[in-house]
Amino acid sequence: MSLNDKIDAVITWVDGNDPVHQAKRAQFLTNKRENARKDVAGETRFNQVGEIYCCIASILRFAPWINKIYIVTDNQDPHVEDYIKIHFPDNKIPVEVVDHKVVFEGYEKHLPTFNSLAITSVLWRIPGINERFILFNDDVMLQRPVTPEDFYRDNKIVLYGRRWISVNETRITLVLQTLMRRLVGKKALLSFKKFMYNAARVTQSARFVRLDHTPHAFFKSVFSEFYAANPQCLEDNVRHRFRNKEQYSAAELHHLLAVKQGRADVALRKKCGVTLSPYMYDIEGLKRELQKIADDAQCLYFCVNSLDQSSPEHIDIVNAWMRNVLSLKAEA
Q1: How many structural domains comprise the chain?
Q2: Is residue 130 within 8 Å of 6, Cβ to Cβ?
Q3: Distance CA 258, CA 160 (A)
Q4: Is residue 132 situated within a structural domain?
Q5: HSE of 226 in the Cβ direction (CA atoms, 13 Å)?
Q6: pTM of the entire structure?
């Protein structure tokens, strides 16, 4: 792999159990009822039960060609050094913790932020990051060996998503959903689909990809060139400390721009990953779902969604399963 072909990995992480972080959030939750909503600032958006260690282990185990791993945090440190020494004593992939102040340089007035949409918009600003980098949320993990070609082919990103969706059809759907919720006295939800739809509007695209919780392959230059020409778009997305209906998905924005530039493989791979919410299953059902994932040869990655909402027994079962998939020692 030449210098220009090097690929970095970025993991966004927060320890919502940290009293300092909790105090910061409380300071800026001016409208407690509004911001306590799960889709805006609910606890599950920030809680963690150690998923990042399995995320890192999955990269080291199944993507040893990664050049460097960056962990982006808000003045926190997951202290992964000892974990890596125990399970990967021969590891050669450097790991660096990057603070929000670094990637928000010039936009410090919007810190602290508790908004993944804002954070994703500035990851390309990590000092020294390569042109090609793959974003992992801390609850997204690889489950079998992958190659660079699973993310980049012929100088194009490989798109992982369910399907293409029309902007016009989505506009009508969102209006109807808002009206229906108002009729029953409820506020409109902040959905992933809305943020993807907003990205299509920003890029003046007639359709957008329905994205899932997947690793996202990015080109640094797609972001840097767009924001250099459209600085207000960056300002608009990073200024919200909590999720806001006017924001867009930076991942969707990148992918739509890459499509327009001929830098994306648009043959969607929708069966290559699974999003699992363990709390939605009883114990036996959870075991069956985990076995299905393990047996699926096409499943390259999985997302363990909101594991913190699960019972201790659910968490133990998922952790044991992940240790087995990643060939980790029991004490992990």
Answers
A1: 1
A2: yes
A3: 13
A4: yes
A5: 23
A6: 0.90
